[in-house]
TrEMBL record:
Organism of origin: Pedobacter kyungheensis
InterPro entries the record matches: Epimerase_deHydtase, NAD(P)-bd_dom_sf, NAD(P)-dependent_oxidoreduct
One of the Pfam families matching this protein, by short name: Epimerase
All copies of domain NAD-dependent epimerase/dehydratase, residue ranges: 2-226
Protein name: Nucleoside-diphosphate sugar epimerase
């Protein structure tokens, strides 16, 4: 039996869709209040199991008869206000999954993040060998994913059969305007600014495909960056604008402008109670130039990534 945590999430639901399309039965974890996405609703090959990864008593029963575990569940936020929840879910929750995989002799595929990777060496792309140098001042999400990944490495040193993937920014039409889809909403609504930053992007379908290939590969104790293309935000926003047939952003948001923006929005949030759309961490990441190598995952699986430009085209057509 295959167990998938975070089964109702953006990546988890796409993974389950691909697994069941192969005729494989899946036991999927969901919390009581989570809604099952239309993508995988009424699927007879899915056994839904209500449990929280931070509640070990309920989790133990979910592992009965399981041989493979895809750990997709995570809490994502770049708001430092959520630090306690980020650590509770992404570190403590992952530790529970690692321990239960070890106890039940399950093979684990853990979804980490590029946020857990280190910085590139001079004039080169970031690779799997670039381990993050511990920085207590780093944003809480990156720190939580780094510490969560360390729990998996701890399990590996204790004999756990596990593989780690570090996806870049995951995009796809089924995200709607949530998560990474918020970027598409921003541009569609006529946002006039872009930032001088860059990151890796990848279609959710390719992330799930790569995960399945790695689970079936004879490899253990390795990590793999899953990224299709590096994109400068100006080019990303321009391509999204073209897809929606709206005006592309033309003004560069300088770091000092972003500094004023996140401070002002933080002040406003104190009075409104609403989450600020720009935080200190999102402002910092938006002007960082980060480039990622996908050579290792291609060499291991032979995967051909969908170009990000094609993904943008498909997403904008779907969201129009």
């Amino acid at each position: 039996m295959i167990l998938v945590t975070g089964g109702t999430g953006f990546l988890g639901s796409e993974l389950i869709k691909q697994l069941t399309n192969k005729g494989l039965p899946v036991r999927a974890l969901k919390r009581a209040q989570s809604k099952i996405p239309a993508l995988i609703s009424n699927n007879p090959l899915i056994e839904w199991f209500e449990a929280d990864i931070n509640e070990t008593a309920a989790l133990e029963d979910a592992f009965i008869g399981v041989t493979q575990v895809y750990h997709c569940a995570a809490f994502v936020s770049l708001n430092s206000k959520h630090k306690k929840q980020l650590f509770h879910v992404n570190i403590d929750g992952t530790s529970n999954i690692v321990n239960l995989c070890a106890e039940n002799n399950c093979r684990l595929l853990h979804v980490s993040s590029i946020a857990a990777l280190g910085n590139a060496k001079k004039n080169s792309k970031i690779t799997e060998k670039d381990f993050w140098e511990y920085d207590a001042q780093a944003h809480a999400y990156g720190l939580s994913k780094y510490e969560g990944e360390m729990e998996v490495w701890r399990g590996i040193t204790e004999g756990l059969d596990a593989v780690i993937v570090n996806p870049s920014v995951i995009i796809g039409k089924n995200a709607g305007f949530e998560g990474s889809g918020a970027i598409f909403k921003l541009v569609k609504d006529g946002f006039a600014f872009y930032t001088d930053g860059a990151s890796g992007f990848v279609d959710v379908e390719d992330v799930a495909k790569a995960m399945i290939l790695l689970m079936d590969a004879e490899v253990s104790g390795e990590r793999y960056i899953i990224s299709a293309d590096d994109y400068h935000y100006k080019d990303l926003f321009t391509d999204i604008a073209k897809g929606f047939s709206v005006k592309a952003p033309t003004k560069e948001a300088k770091p000092w402008m972003l500094g004023l923006a996140w401070r002002a929005l933080k002040l406003v949030s104190l009075f409104t109670g609403k989450q600020p759309s720009i935080t200190k961490d999102t402002a910092k990441s938006s002007v960082t130039l980060s480039y990622y190598s996908n050579n290792k995952i291609i060499a291991e699986t032979g995967i051909t990534f969908k170009p990000v430009a094609q993904s943008i085209q498909e997403i904008t057509q779907h969201l129009k």
